[in-house]
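Think of the structure tokens as a kind of shorthand, similar to the way a musician reads notation: each symbol stands for something richer, in this case the local conformation of the backbone. In the example below we present two proteins back to back. Begin with the first one, reading the sequence and then the tokens, and try to describe in your own words what changes along the chain.
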Amino acid sequence: MRLLSVRKCLGIAAAVGLTVAFAPAARAEPIDEVPSGTKLNKANWEIAKGHLPDEILEFYKRGDYENPIVQKPGNEWLVDPNLIEASKKNAGKFKIDENGTVVDASTGERPAVITGLPFPDLQANDPEAGQKAIWNWFYSLYWEGSFHTNSPVNWVSRDGLLRRIATGVHFKYYDGNPPMFQEKIGENPLNILSRTIGVVNEPADVNGIVNLNWRFREGDKQDNAWTYVPALRRVRPINPANRSDGLLGSDISLDDGPYFDGKPEDFNFKVVGEGKILAHFDGPALEKGSPVRPLKPDEEVSSLVTEAVTGWRLESPEVPLIPPQTDGWKRDDGNSLVAWAPIAYTLVPRPVWIIEATPKNPYYLYGKQVLYLDKDTFRGYWKNKYDWKGNALANWAVPAMPLTKTQTADGQPWYMRTGGGGNAAFAVNYKQDRATVTGMPVETTDYHIQIPDKIYEVDRVSRMGK
């Protein structure tokens, strides 16, 4: 599929009453014709015109980044057949209400459970295509179940690592899980859609900071969020608008999360184009697969989840993620990669919807975000963030991952999207010329686990932080 030209993108947008805020430039040859294994760098950066955000392409043009382009035809390595089957049953069942919430098309009510993508037949000429696409993104995420990860956060300048903190995060999704996992969630009297709790463990000066967030199914009900700061020794509520602020001074916000984690009803979404992008994948996972295994019955997930659980554990090998982790990074001729260059990424051409998200809250930090959602999986690539005047400020890149085939406890085939060591996320601040990088050092992640509701109670936050 050829990348749509700016003129064609404008034509599509005009047909559905949209305003184009971003559209990639056209190229003479399709990106699919670039030989697999070609390394994108400053010598050939022009082959990627229109297939990366301009600011990211500039890093390749300057010689700050270089990554291989790999052609991966077909979708069997990326598209979960179980999710596709579940999604097919949703055709025509749901719609978007006045709040931007996904509801039953016949009753107008939010269903107790939605399984699979709610809008499997997305069309560009649908005026609500943007809002439907973001709900597809969320339900592709929910399908992969509740999980726990230890996530080191690293501040990186052009010259190297500046600072590091260690955090542990538990994500629990009450909807969208495969049926066999949905049954284990149990009752949900508070009508919660998802809950997240993050604890800072290191270093000592920030140890014990806790963030807790509840998101509700009701579209007109704001998130409830709290934080515990040891210096204050008290739990304080957080304004949901503050979810766009950087975590402890980093360039990662709570609304970044797994890619985009803002409450969908708090934004307006619109399709501003279609095309192909050089999607960033976990290179080691593409090459060698993922070392994921079933959890053992007596294994402890975390200090908060000590009961026996089922699920899978990813124990990725330690691989270099940024140039300072390699030998000979600093070269005398000055042709060194920038310190935060994502050297474990592999670029794969993928068809995408280009979605513009604008916040309804005028005090939100970013005036616009541009998302690139895969047309087949609705996973996101290279999210660009802008100020209220339209100036590009930052980029949030969570690596995409191929499917790993495993099996359930009863021997049924199962597919998981897990990393292979190169699954570090990068928040690049264009204006400050710096980045925040997760995943150094590589930590374990546990998927499809049963997380007890009690760890998300407000009265536990202060006890956890002490």
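Once you have a description of the first chain, move to the second and do the same.
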Amino acid sequence: MIGKARRGTRVASQRVRLGDREFATLGVKRPVFGDLYHYFMTVSWPRLFATLAVFFVGFDLLFGWLYDLVPGCIANLSPPGFLGAFFFSVETLATVGYGDMHPTSVYGHTVATIEVFAALTTLTLITGIMFARFSRPRARFLFARNAVVRPIDGQPTLMFRAANARHNVIQEASAQLRMLRDEVTVEGFRIRRILDLPLVRAQHPVFVLGWNIMHVIDAASPLWGATAESLRASQASFILSLSGIDETTGHLLIGRAQYPSAAIHWNRAFIDILEEGEDGVMQVDYRKFHDVVPLATEPGRPSDTEPPR
């Protein structure tokens, strides 16, 4: 049940955006150091490199300070003092080994041994994180920003448009469509329901160019009798999920798009993106991929890039 957040109490909060709605979670701390793998896998690339740079400098400052605690433990220290100890720590961490500066005492060798062990462990972990980020499969599914409701074979039909931006084969692609909306039960309990919307065709054997994903609004549909106003009043939104196996890499690809009720255009149609060029080659114009037009101006020819229903 949706209630009012208490005011005047300062607690840890985190912003979470779901489609066009934003939420603030209260009372749940985000343990960055307790979940470093998830942090490094989800943080942006600039922030990742900034974090690694800060760690690198902090690591060398720490061991430089340890070397500087006992003057004379490093031979040929240049420049003298803490700065030279810092640069020696950098060379030890990177296992550069220029040959001029080296430990001369048991203390120096001990600190260097600890630093080399910590450096090897840390560099191994960083290498694993970088490999995991680069090797993580990413779908290049293109979802139209809008959806339309239009008649198909005499039935009002909710239609979404998706495409494979890589233009390679996605095998056994599947689609799932779900609607989220606010409802009130007979007891007066307000709840946000998740409703499955069955599709005319939920699988695509060879997803290469485009795919019209359709849900028929009949008497069995949760959208039966719905209007643009009723969807807006219930704060309805739609989640379209696509998945399939990339034929090139064998990875499972997953993509998702969320549509608020304002993105559903009634009595509209997608502009056909398939046309024949002057050389006779069929052209798919993705510049018009997101465009919709009133039904009265819709071209009469269906798009050949879409699979049969």
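Compare your description with these statements about the second chain. The domain at 141-297 is CATH 2.60.40.1400 (Immunoglobulin-like).
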